[in-house]
Design brief:
Layout: E1 2-5, H1 11-20, H2 30-39, E2 42-48, E3 51-59, H3 68-76, E4 81-88, H4 97-111, E5 116-123, H5 127-135, E6 139-146, E7 149-156
Parallel strand pairs: 4-5
Antiparallel strand pairs: 1-2, 2-3, 3-4, 5-7, 6-7
Length: about 160
């Protein structure tokens, strides 16, 4: 498994993987993915034989990103690395790819003294993601309700 920075050529594959992660990943268009990659501090992909099989997109504070989840953290914390989305190709789940990506996120955050923030879907529930985040040392710091969705806000010290 090779981890490297995502490029614009990866956008169609990112979109496909993101679609397989719905509703937990949040629906986005390919244009929105391109914009997220432009804003991302850490756009990282996991590749198996040059095929993208997983990705993570992370942003810093004070980024012009119109996500209410991101805004919740941006209003409360001065310094953080926000995990906007992490997803793995359906056929490659439960093969430690998400863990490899998060290990890189954590290493990057520690090198730069960033705590890490993320959210996990509460409504609809995503117990696998909650277990995943707890396993990586995240704690629950709030809940955000909007429209028909609710999310648990997660925080990990660096």
């Amino acid at each position: 498994m090779l981890l490297r920075t995502l490029g614009s050529e990866d956008i169609p594959a990112i979109w496909k993987i993101n679609e397989q992660g719905l509703p937990g990943t949040g629906k986005v268009s390919q244009d929105e993915i391109a914009e997220l990659m432009r804003l991302a501090e850490l756009p990282l992909g996991a590749y198996e034989e040059d095929r993208l099989v997983g990705f993570v997109l992370c942003l810093l504070p004070r980024t012009k990103y119109a996500s209410p989840n991101y805004a919740w953290f941006d209003q409360r914390y001065q310094n953080f690395l926000y995990v906007d989305r992490i997803a793995v190709l359906e056929s490659h789940r439960n093969r430690t790819i998400g863990s490899l990506l998060y290990q890189e996120v954590i290493a990057y955050a520690q090198q730069n003294n960033y705590p890490i923030t993320a959210e996990v879907s509460l409504k609809p529930p995503n117990p696998d993601s909650m277990r995943f985040h707890h396993r990586f040392g995240f704690s629950e710091v709030g809940v955000l309700h909007h429209e028909s969705k609710s999310v648990t806000m997660m925080f990990r010290e660096c």
